[in-house]
Structures are given as C-alpha cells and as structure tokens.
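Holo model, calcium ion. Inputs:
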Amino acid sequence: MKYIIVLMAALFLSCNASEEQRETRAVSPNGTIKVNFDVSEAGQPYYTVTRNDKVVIDTSYLGFEFKNATAFDKNFSVKNSESKTHNETWQMPWGEQLDVVNHYNEFRVMLQENVAPKRLLNIVFKVYDDGIGFRYEFPEQEQLSEVEITEEHTQFNLTEDYKTFWIPGDWDIYEHLYSTTKLSEINAIAYSNHVNLAQTYIPENAVNTPVTMVGNYGLHLSFHEAALVDYSGMTLKVDPDNLNLESHLVGSKNNDYKVKRALPFHTPWRTIQITDNAPDLITSNLIVNLNESNVLGDVSWFKPMKYTGVWWEMHLGKSSWDYGLEMVDGTWTDTGKAHGRHGATTENVKRFIDFSAKNNIKGVLVEGWNTGWERWIGFEDREGVFDFVTTYPDYDLDEVVRYGNEKGVEIIMHHETSAATETYTKQQDAAFALMQKHGIHTVKTGYVGKILPKGEYHHGQYMVNHYNNTVEKAAKYEVAINAHEPIKPTGLRRTYPNTISREGLRGQEFNAWADDGGNPPEHLPIVAFTRMLAGPIDFTPGIFNIKFDEFKKENQVNTTLAQQLALYVVIYSPVQMAADLVEHYEANPEPFQFIKDVGVDWQTTKVLNGEVGEYVTIARQERETGNWFLGSITDENSRSFEVDFSFLDDNQEYTATIYKDGQDAHWDKNPLALDIETITLTNTSTLTLNLAEGGGVAMSIIKNNK
Ligand code: NOJ
Ligand code: CA
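Output:
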C-alpha cells in the first residue's frame, strides 16, 4: 500500500503564556469553526466552539475524578501553549474513497496546578472545517505515575434544544432502535431490559455515540470519539434541563474505577462533527483523520468482497447452528442425538460456493461449523465451551477450502465467542494459525451474551483492550476482523486496516426474529447519519423474500425490494453480504443482477441529498473500473428527487440500469413491486427518482466502451 504525503506543513509557535495572555484558540482552515480555551477564576479548564461566529458549544468545563488522587477540577493555570497547522493527503487501502485530506489547525495547552502537588495536564484541540477533536494528555511527571479514573467530566454545553437521533447509553450493546426526540426529551432509561437483547445495561439517562442532532437553523452536529485505545467507551449523560451533555464512561463491577492507566498516556479524541447540512456529515472524514496512520503496511492480502453464507437460514429457523452433540467427560460427543437440521454441512457450503462463483461473489461465510453451539446462548458457564479448531462431524474444512479455491471463492471464518473472552484469547493463536494454513483471511467474530469474566461490560476498558488486542494479533496471521457485538468503531481502521467492518447496531437479523416488528423503515435513513459516521457496517442487506411467511409469519423486512438493493451503495462496508437464501436469488435473477454488478471498493463517494432520518442518496465510483453505483433510500414516506449526474466523466457515455420501486410499491403492502429500466447517461443528464414508502432506487452506471 502506498502512503503519499502530498503536502505537510507544520508550524510550531510556542509562547510562554503570562497570566494576562493565557487564552488559547484556533480557527479551522477555512475560518468557519473557532475553538477558544481558557481556565475559570477557580482554575477549571473550559472551552467554547463557534461556527460562523454563532455559539455551538457554550462554556463547557473539562476535568477528571480519580480514585487514587484528588480531582482535576480546579487550580489549573496555563503554563505554555503551542500551535501548528497540518495538511496532508493520505490514501485508504480500501474504503469509501481513495484520497483523504487531513487539514487542521491545532493547539496544545500545557496546564499545571498552582497548588501542591502541582500536577500537569495537557489538552490538545484539532480544529477542522467539518468539526473538532480534542483529547487529554497526561504527561510523564514525578507527582503522578498512575491514575485510576472514576469519571471523566467533559462537557458539551449546547445552546438550543436540538432534534436528536439517539440510542440509549447501554454499556453492553448498541442494538437498539434509534429514537428521535428533542434533546430535552431524551429518556434512555425507558429502554432498559429489551427482551430481544442477550445483554443490556443502561445505568443513566445517557446516550451512546455517534449521537446526531439537527438544529432549528440547519446546524448539524454529531458527537463521538476517535482512536478508542486502552480506555473505556464514552456515553454522554444528558442534562435535559440545561441542554448539556457530559461524558459518562463505561465501568466494570470488578473495579471501583473506570479506567486505569500508567502515565504518560492520552485519552481518545472527543469529537464533534459540525456541518450545515446532512450530506456533509457522511463525507466528513474527521473520525478516521484523528487516528494514527497505518502501522500494518501492506494489507493487500485482504480484498474487499461481496459474500454469501450459511447465516440467514439459521436466523429464519430453516437450519440450526448446532448439530446435536452432547458434552461427555469434557468432550463434545455424538451420542446419537443429531437432529439433522445442522446448516454448516460440507454439501450446503459447496452449494453456496457454486452459487457465489457463478455470480461475482468472492466469499462464503460459514456459521455453526465448530463444536459448542449446543451451549452458547443463555448459559452461565460458557468458558471452554466453544473451540475454534474442532469441526462438527458433517463439515470438512479442508474439502470446502479446496473446493472454494478451485472456484475462486474464499471461506469466511466464524468465531462466535459467546463473550467467553478468556477462552477466545487463549485459543487465538491456534485459531488464526488454522486460518492462515487454509489461506483464509477474514473472520467474523461474535460476542453474544454477558461478558465473561463476570462484571465486565462490552464497552468497558477490559473489552476495548480485548477487541483491539484481537485485531493486532489477527494482523500477525494476515487475518481481517469483522466483529459483531463489538466496541463502536472509532476510526482505528486507519491504523489497523485489518479492522474491516463490524456490527454495533440493530442489523438485518432483527427482522428475522425480533418481537417488536423488526427495524422500521426509518431505521437505515437514521443509521446513515449516526452509526455510519463512525465506520463500516456489516448490516447484511439483500433480502429478496421480504415476507418469508413460509418460515416466520410474524416477521418481515420493512423495506421494499428496491431499497434492499440500494443498501449495497448507501450502507458502506468493504465486506457486503448477499444475505438471502440461494433459492431466493435463483428465483429472481433480474434484481439479483444488481448485486452481481455492484462494487465494494470505492474511488470516491458523493452524497447527493439527504435529511437525517428521512432519506439519503449516495453515488460511489468503483476503484479500477471507474463505474458508478447509486443508492437512494427513504423512510415510511414516498419521495421524488431530481438527481443530476454532473459527477460523471466528461465525454463519456454510460449505460445505467435503474432498479426502482414499481407501481404501488410499499414496504408493507407491496414490497416486491420492482421496475428495471436501462437508459444512457452522460454528465449532462438529470433524472427524477421516485421512491415508494419504505422504498429505494439502485442504479449501476457502467461506462460504454469508446
Ligand atoms: C449475532 C450476530 O450478530 C449474528 O450475525 C450471528 O449470526 C449470531 N450472533 C451467531 O454468532
Ligand atoms: Ca448482533
């Protein structure tokens, strides 16, 4: 992989701030966003943010509480400060675009307590045109060698009662539906104890990030964090009366602190994306830009791909993950109880390989291939149950790998840990070595259930380290990770580009079994402007048999078929599943053609329109071919938009195939109505797209040979 520093300008200005001239500030490169920092009379650090001179974040205090030391909440003065400008262009090895501009103005304030023990704290602000990031640095100092942080107090003091798109600040899972309320009306506690969640814990009226807000005068904000390493995840506690958010870190029942670190260290970046329209939130690269550059070097062993798999059939109840073994004297044994419904058989996987090979799909995920599934969910004692090398009797790993190689299709490994982290950590070397031996470069991991060791949560420091250590270890075996029930993405894919995708939201699977009606039509038009701002999503689109009544009468997908196609473009992931059953695709070759054609790795991305929670239209240009693909989705309201194709190349004709909602299409009443039309397009063309309720449009826009 090539990393080209196109332009790098660094200017250091260092000044010894006197008492009189201690204020510190920076302005974004185009002058729109300004950050001011100061300390109060009592010596408490605070900052403010403006955009076009309008206050976005009013006086917001910063500080920490510790178990082993007095709090960082007063008595600070600015001892020194420095500023710099940075402008580089770096390249994504895979991604939504090739070139990423990273241009910001930065300042660092060095604070010291003016009373004993005169401890030190630095705060760094990076100010971009699309938002800000800041973090705390705990420099090496004799006065303090280790901190046990009981709480971080980072405030975001808002100036209006924003329309807010939020999920509760659950310490254990992000798989909640989004709520849309005024900031002052957030009530996260109401979402405690969701019956469809194998683990959930919401201790406060707090939200998880990214949380996105739209103001009365069109300001768009999204709060999140970047580079979450060796720290716990941050939720944001809501003070509805004062329109204030404040960091509330995820804790652990095993410690009376939330984060323990030896000095020197720095926290993750606290981020605010700030734009004046919804599409610019999606094209903002603030989160990845705030991460360190690639430390893995060439990761070309991982290729973005579409994949099928032994997956949806289990969620529908057509087959099962488990085989029907019994544990006898510590060994999973065939005692004659096999039920014959096991999905991951050699034969079934070969069927997926054959289908994929014929249809330009390079991967097949196989879930339920290894022993242990008889005891994975709802059991307290899960350590030692799964292993990641022992296959069920009817699955021949050597043979499916051999067969796949012959057909140019790679097996995607699956490691459901059932959140038994010690078992997984112990086995990772053996598990990744097995993959390497077979030339398997991608694994989907899973963490269903309460974390073992007991008392830890999915989003606390213990698990942040577990997820990150797994990525680092996997890289040594040329393995890329697609984590389910993960920690939220914070842009670490820049540093570790084997971090390819993850879940971390209510995925398609909920449509198969949730007893709350599944994901409503507004779900993905919200996700595109919330969870998707953080990083790639393994949503697993492409369900054609929308109602699947032959499997589940009570459940269905709540979109039209056209929207399922549009999701391949709208919801970004470098691994994109064609999730439905082979027979459902074989019965519908015309719409399936889009999945066959659509790209998975992009040169550039254009967000053509969008409003948070309502609709969004995205066009992406495929790397290498230069072909374009467009996806447009809407919530429960029908829409018409005029799209202009001025982004296409000059003097080039394209053949566009349009997959659109048919006459009377409707996500519930008529989801399968689909029209397919082929036209010629150039960069002077315009087109009206009509989307049905819960509908969409997908387009492949392929260059004509000259
Ligand atoms: C939950 C994951 O989200 C899903 O994709 C997977 O099939 C199951 N866990 C089993 O690992
Ligand atoms: Ca899940």
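The pocket of calcium ion (ligand 2) is lined by residues 175, 484-485, 503, 507 (CB under 6 Å). The CA atoms of residues 135 and 269 lie 5 Å apart.
Archived with the compound record.
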